[in-house]
């Protein structure tokens, strides 16, 4: 049998396995609560770009009927109905579209309680502080939409790349690195500290996070950045100039050596994280 035919058969069998997943299923959400999905969801609304990406990567993008507005949404969903901004989706619009599953709605604006009270299944994954959280989100969505096997395959691909990058990045001397979010040219930026996915990626890529001793995303002074003197700085591409053009930071090695690099913030917490990790490793160790 030719290789192409084998691939078709395997893909077909995976599809049959996924379709045969029995319902109801239960998944654990970000609150630690068991969410029961009664049947295979066919009308799905995504409130976050991450969930939209996961559905598309799982091959369930055709079941999306609407998304929340976000600059990080994949272009493929540009023609879908909108339920408002991702930080404040409109419950009335969501209910008017008769979804059988809403992904990503939280309690911040009271959307989740209102939807659940109306009888809509709502699923949100954990806050992403590392790759295990991303894998948990993929696994939960895969189970909810009846594509558990495909979800495990996606997780496997990301994990395989991560392990491969990490194995080549193991060096006795690690590059002093900072991941900064500098939304303004004048205000001190926010640094990704310990307990963030950025910190994990820096370590896996062969760097040493100079702000690993602080938790979360604290605003750090220019003096702190200067004193810790990162050799490489990662930031969102749109914010590079806020670092390289700041006269207070012009003397640190990352700036003088031209090693302030753009990493799209939304890709850090997405299914594109394997690509991000590969890019970071190459930028930290361009010599290979």
How would you sum up this structure, described in words?
The protein is of the alpha/beta class and 288 residues long. The chain folds into 2 domains: 16-154, 3-Layer(aba) Sandwich (Rossmann fold), CATH 3.40.50.1980; 171-284, Rossmann fold (3-Layer(aba) Sandwich), CATH 3.40.50.1980. It is 40% helix and 16% strand. It has helices at residues 3-19, 49-58, 91-96, 111-117, 131-144, 148-168, 197-204, 222-228, 240-244, 253-256, 265-268, 273-284; strands at 25-28, 34-37, 44-46, 64-69, 81-85, 101-103, 122-123, 175-181, 190-191, 207-209, 232-235, 260-262. The strands form 3 sheets. It has a 5-stranded parallel sheet. Strands 8, 9, 10, 11 and 12 form a 5-stranded mixed sheet that branches. Helix 2 (49-58) links the parallel strand 3 and strand 4 (64-69). Helix 2 (49-58) packs across helix 5 (131-144), helix 5 packs antiparallel against helix 6 and helix 6 (148-168) runs parallel beside helix 12. The protein starts with a helix and ends with a helix.
Jot down its keywords.
single chain; 288 residues; alpha/beta; Rossmann fold; 2 domains; five-stranded mixed beta sheet; 40% helix; disordered N terminus
What secondary-structure arrangement, pairings included, does this model have?
Blueprint: H1 3-19, E1 25-28, E2 34-37, E3 44-46, H2 49-58, E4 64-69, E5 81-85, H3 91-96, E6 101-103, H4 111-117, E7 122-123, H5 131-144, H6 148-168, E8 175-181, E9 190-191, H7 197-204, E10 207-209, H8 222-228, E11 232-235, H9 240-244, H10 253-256, E12 260-262, H11 265-268, H12 273-284
Parallel strand pairs: 3-4, 3-6, 4-5, 6-7, 8-10, 8-11, 11-12
Antiparallel strand pairs: 1-2, 8-9
